[in-house]
Amino acid sequence: MKTKILSALVFIFWMIISAATPASGSSPDIQGQNIETNSVKVYPNPVTGTRFQIQAQKNIEEIRVVNILGQKAETGLYRKNTNQAEVSLQNKKQGIYLVTVVFDDKTSEVIRIIVK
User: Is the pTM of this model over 0.85?
Assistant: First the structure.
């Protein structure tokens, strides 16, 4: 229960911060544009199949996918190399998800995706 509450609070805080500070690179448009930040590109967005791609400028150590309630999504991860990955969504449900990409230098980026 505490984890769900904490996840919801983190999500709300993140939404407030991300709305106040535009990302450089491509705009993270929730209407269905591919999303690119300083070091991460996620495509296609919206996700219409069961897989999406992640490309980063740094080496990827871990990828986590949660829905907006903070519940972990079942995923399969297929590494292409150290800075690219393909994520497979299992039991795909429509909605907004947060993808956290953790790099080998222990920094991370959170990207919003839409699953249709």
Answer: no
Report the SS3 class of residue 3. helix
CATH number at residue 86: 2.60.40
To which residue do tokens 């897989």 refer?
Answer: 51
C-alpha torsion angle, residues 63, 68, 70, 74 (rounded to 10): -50
Q: Which two tokens stand for residue 32?
A: 């269905």
Residue-range definition of the domain harbouring residue 19: 2-115
Residue recorded with tokens 């992640």: 54
Q: Please name the amino acid found at residue 107.
A: T
**What distance in Å separates the CA atoms of residue 113 and residue 116, rounded to the nearest whole number?**
10
- 10-23: b or e for each residue (b if 16 or more CB lie within 10 Å)? ebeeeeeeeeeeee
Q: What is the pLDDT of residues 60-113, one digit of tens each?
A: 999 999 999 999 998 888 887 789 999 998 888 899 999 999 999 999 999 999
